[in-house]
Amino acid sequence: MQRSSMDTLQIQDAKQRFSEVAARAARGRAQVMTQRGKPFVVILVIAEWKKSRSQRRTLIAGLRSCPADLTMLVTQRSREQGLEVEL
User: Fold this and answer.
1) CA max distance for the chain
2) What is the pTM of this model?
3) Phi, psi of 59 (to 5 degrees)
């Protein structure tokens, strides 16, 4: 499935036209609801939601898949004592 395009509408409008909003989401157009002018929630087809959930990876997996040379990355913690700081 292709990356879906998105429609944006205020949450009040979405509540009034929920069936229409859900139908557009089912056709692959994610529906972004705003509240006080800021993105609040998204309605999208379940296949897109599942796909986005399956793309999560651990930090280690992300680093391992990085195309850059990470051999210079310092992965060991220093054994030196930390500095004393007055609070």
Assistant:
1) 62
2) 0.54
3) -60, -45
